[in-house]
Specification:
Order of helices and strands: EHEHEHEHEHEHHHHH
Shape: elongated
Oligomer: single chain
Distance between the termini: 42 Å
Number of helices: 10
Number of strands: 6
Radius of gyration: 18 Å
CATH superfamily of the largest domain: Response regulator
CATH architecture of the largest domain: 3-Layer(aba) Sandwich
CATH topology of the largest domain: Rossmann fold
Helix content: 40-55%
Strand content: 5-15%
Number of domains: 2
Length: 223
């Protein structure tokens, strides 16, 4: 019988073990599931790269948005991992699972990764998991109800942050001053200040301080 290989990257290991039991015990038409678990960005990236090198890419990648930090201390996200996976393992279906149902966050991921699915964790149960596998394997996107509502919500300004934007937000969040960021971000002091101004416009806090920027960015799941 065909084996559908799934990699789940999520630092909530006990939850993923539960998903593993559900999917590996489930009865599917013509295939069975094998689910591997990794809990960090670094480990997930390594396993994806190894699978591609062995010419055995995963059929489905289930990625949490919030992951533990990388080797350099920067908090890489499941979105970052999804961008990498799209490039190195294009045949893999990518499904995000997260507690975030904010339309800003979901639409950002749609723009950067164009995933094959998005599941809000509060809506995940046994039937949802099984349905997701069957749907995405048939080349159809799968979204839980809250995710679909967010996707259908028209944004006046779509938020897309590149790696430089994310680094600036991160270093502000841990207390760095602009002059100290130039060692970690490939921009001048004036360049960083300009990015900060644009970020405040994006998040609707144009006339407020850096704390307001960080608070809003964190609230929407970008930190």
């Amino acid at each position: 019988m065909k084996v559908v290989r799934i990699l789940a990257v999520d630092d909530h290991k006990m939850t993923m073990i539960g998903y593993k039991f559900i999917l590996e015990d489930a009865i599917f038409d013509g295939f069975k599931v094998q689910l591997n678990i990794e809990t960090t960005f670094v480990a997930g990236k390594a396993v994806i790269e190894e699978s591609v090198a062995k010419n055995t890419p995963f059929d489905i990648l289930m990625l949490d948005i919030q992951l533990s930090t990388g080797d350099d201390g920067f908090p890489y996200s499941g979105e970052d991992l999804g961008i990498i996976a799209r490039e190195i393992s294009p045949s893999s279906k990518i499904v995000f699972l997260s507690s975030f149902s904010d339309n800003y966050r979901i639409n950002s991921i749609l723009m950067s990764v164009n995933p094959d699915g998005y599941m809000v964790k509060s809506e995940i149960n046994e039937s949802v998991l099984k349905e997701m596998v069957q749907v995405v394997l048939n080349d159809t996107p799968y979204y839980t109800k809250k995710a679909l509502i967010a996707i259908r919500t028209k944004m006046s300004n779509d938020i897309y942050l590149d790696q430089t934007d994310k680094k600036i937000l991160y270093y502000i969040s841990i207390g760095y001053k602009t002059k100290d960021m130039v060692e970690h971000v490939s921009l001048s002091v004036s360049g960083i200040e300009n990015r900060k101004r644009i970020l405040k416009e994006i998040f609707g806090v144009t006339n407020e301080n850096d704390y307001a920027l960080i608070h809003t960015a964190r609230e929407k799941g970008f930190i």
